[in-house]
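User: Run a structure prediction on this.
Assistant: Running it now.
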Amino acid sequence: MKAEKLIAERGAAWEHLEKIVDRAIKSGPKAVDSGDLNEAIHLYREISADLAVLRTSQADPKLIDRINRLLSRAHGVLYRGQGPKKEWSLLQFYRVTFPRLFRRTWKCTLASFLCSALFYCMAYQVVQD
């Protein structure tokens, strides 16, 4: 597919994603409704494929750079995480994550403890003799 044909067919989608991303950056992601965010996710994937086509067809480097910057900005809006507060993350680990993990892996933990205890006893006997 020629680059000019791709620009004609997909240019509107690029501009639409750019508008959604600009709105999300200016007003925050909560200002963009869920329908637009879902559409932005689909457009992001499609435009990523467009970028691959443009790169393989030796299109204008300025256009490739523009689409690449658009996708970088969209990635920042769509996939940034809301990390937990630091003071809560350690507390959450000991109150929620670790007990859940221990309940899931208690058999392996017990087997590991028993093996360690067995070798400890064997080493103690060797040293005592």
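The mean pLDDT is 88.
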